[in-house]
Amino acid sequence: MSTNKPSEAVMILQLKVGDYKNFSYIVADAATGEAAVIDPAWEVQLILEKLKERNLNLKFIVNTHAHLDHIEGNASLSSVTGAKIVMHANSYAKKDIAVKDGGSLKVGKNAILHFIHTPGHSSESMCIIVNDIAIFTGDTLFVGECGRVDLPGGDANALYDSFEKLRSLDPKLALYPGHDYGNRPVSTLGEEIRSNYTLAKRTREEFVKFMLNESRVGSKEDPLSRLS
Length: 228
Ligand SMILES: [Fe+2]
Hints:
Helix content is about 20%, strand content about 30%. About 45% of the residues are buried. The radius of gyration is 16 Å and the shape is globular. The chain is α/β, with parallel strands linked by helices. The strands form three sheets. A seven-stranded mixed sheet has the order 1-2-3-4-5-6-7, with helices on one face. It has a single domain (about 1-215), classed as Ribonuclease Z/Hydroxyacylglutathione hydrolase-like (Metallo-beta-lactamase, Chain A, 4-Layer Sandwich). Strand 12 and strand 13 (about 145) form a beta hairpin. Fe (ii) ion (FE2) binds near residues 65, 121, 139, 147 and 228.
């Protein structure tokens, strides 16, 4: 677990949970203590403890996408706290609020979540920018890697366009990935654009070929084993 205070207005807490190196996040408005949890899974009790320790009032559960290892805790966390579940409109999973590209959500007084639709890993994948200081990339982009595109709803062509979107954003954004697959738990968007080999300049055709290369797809026996 690590705490980062990228601004006075927002508190970000990164929690490593479960057997697949998942990250769940708590994002809280410092002024009011109202909070959102991004991708609760596997260790809801830990998330509840952290909320209680910091006297936070959970208002929203936001999922970067609907794969089980990112939404597994939604139902229990929502039933205990009454928090509303927020997901991209393309998602098939249970949600209270459907959002689209360009949408936003205010948490408390000063925390604002902006949603960017980044399909490719799955059709409903989105990245979440918080207060122009941090981006939560789910399984779209990891530190030094990116999510696979060979699961249902995956699309290498769509990921190419999503990466173009990410390249247009502020490189200073702190980058918080959906899994701890890199050599450090947090990066910046600029650092990933500079050094992440999956973001290296490629034509669309080269990128699609690169993403569908056999060596990049996970094991069929355990589909969550790699870059889920
Ligand atoms: Fe995923």
